[in-house]
Amino acid sequence: MSSEQYYQTHAQSFFENTYRVDMSSLHGLFCRYLPEGAWVLDAGCGSGRDSKVFIEKGFQVDAFDASPALAKLASGYAGISVHTLRFEEFVSDLLYDGIWCCASLLHLPYSQLSEALLRLSKACKSGGVIYVSFKYGDQERQVGERHFTDLNEDRLNTLIHSVSALRIEKCWTTADQRPDRDERWLNALLLKDS
Questions:
Q1: What is the rounded distance in angstroms from the CA atom of residue 55 to the CA atom of residue 45?
Q2: Per residue in 92-120, pLDDT tens?
Q3: Residue 84 burial (CB < 10 Å; 0-12/13-18/19+)?
Q4: What percent of the chain has pLDDT over 70?
Q5: For residues 142 and 161, what is the distance between their CA atoms, to the nearest angstrom?
Q6: What distance in Å separates the CA atoms of residue 179 and residue 112, rounded to the nearest whole number?
Q7: Are 59 and 33 in contact (CB under 8 A)?
Q8: First and final C-alpha spacing in the chain
Q9: CA atoms of 91 and 125, how far apart (whole Å)
Q10: Residues 96, 40: contact at Cβ < 8 Å?
């Protein structure tokens, strides 16, 4: 079973475990880079939790997730039409002020991350911001049915160096916000220079 199939099978339990998690400190950092009424893409939106917050902040939001079941739950929760889409299928004619990738890119193999970030950067306005988060570490691993690519600062630097349009504006670690988890996360804000 792939990560995508895992979320399809466990969509309701994943939704229940994540839609109420308080991400306000991360939202605050991201939103500082957005103009009023900004267009935001929630890429790999999961429960739709973050899409809902961005809509409430007055932003125009598009969202997608690879799991049809999660996309349906997120659509209902956030009140928008969430597309069923994988990162490798993503293409956009619209340019976004901000792209939010919270714990979503981490399911791609490391070898596919450059291409995914390149696709996202092409959909980001010049001067726009992309938020990414990964479990902290330096390996690829299989946990049950899901694949995880972990990043530390060195691996993130190497990755972003391969995507010339992006630069790291800020990189920091946080503890998992879910009460039953004892994990560290690597967070980064990436700016598109050109």
A1: 13
A2: 999 999 999 999 999 999 999 999 999 99
A3: middle
A4: 91
A5: 26
A6: 31
A7: no
A8: 39
A9: 14
A10: yes
Nearest Cα neighbor of 42 from 17, 77, 7, 4 is 77
Amino acid (1-letter code) at residue 169? E
State the Cα angle at 125 between 123 and 131, rounded to 5°: 75
Report which residue type is found at 86: R
Provide the whole-model pTM. Answer: 0.93
Of 83, 66, 70, nearest in space to 16 by CA: 70
Q: Tokens for 184? A: 């560290």
**CA 153 from centre of chain:** 17
Three-class SS state of 62: strand
Residues in the chain: 194
* Region 132-142 average pLDDT: 96
Which residue has 């895992």 as its token pair? Answer: 6
Query: What contacts 96, CB < 8 A, 6 or more positions away?
Result: 38, 39, 40, 41, 62, 123, 124, 125, 128
Token pair of 76, please?
A: 């209902």
